[in-house]
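Sync notes, pocket subgroup
Present: LS, DG
LS reminded everyone that the earlier model was apo-only. Rerun requested with copper (II) ion included. Inputs:
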Amino acid sequence: MAMVKFYLISILAIAAPSVYAVQHIVGDSNGWTNFGDYTTWAASNTFNVGDTLLFSYSSSHGVDVLSKSDYDNCDTSNAIQSHTGGSTTIQLTQPGPMYFACPSFGHCSSGMKLAINVGSSSSATPSTTPSTTPSTTPSTTPTSTTPSTTTPSKSNNGQGNSANTVMTIGILLIMAPLFAVMC
Ligand SMILES: [Cu+2]
């Protein structure tokens, strides 16, 4: 029984990140400002492929996507991407580190910079996910995640449902004339 339970929890721990794409609001309610602590914020979030980052900021700021060395040096002159306008959504499309900073003078060096590490979604690489999850699973997940997803199969139904619906309709269409004949 204990093994089954462990097995189920393991499956849930692996499946959960891929099932729910998360939108991370950078800085939470404080948004993207030059007073934020984005090292702490990044450490308190888990980023996965498929998730999005939402930067909310005033007109004195912007969002640049940088290489690691430019991030380290707060050099925004070679930005990979530059965003302005007060609201920027970044899609996390591939695993690995990503680096952001505000291009306004002095903001990056005063801490308006963000480095994240994007984990693979479990559908792509099941083998790598278990190695990262155990650190968080033992104490917190068994009680908190189990109620929301009691049946492991349920998490797959999101994609299965449409196929099932099509099949059901197909069967009904085939059966309908038979019923008509029988009646
Ligand atoms: Cu700024």
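DG: The domain at 2-145 is CATH 2.60.40.420 (Immunoglobulin-like).
LS: The radius of gyration is 23 Å.
Action: DG to write up.
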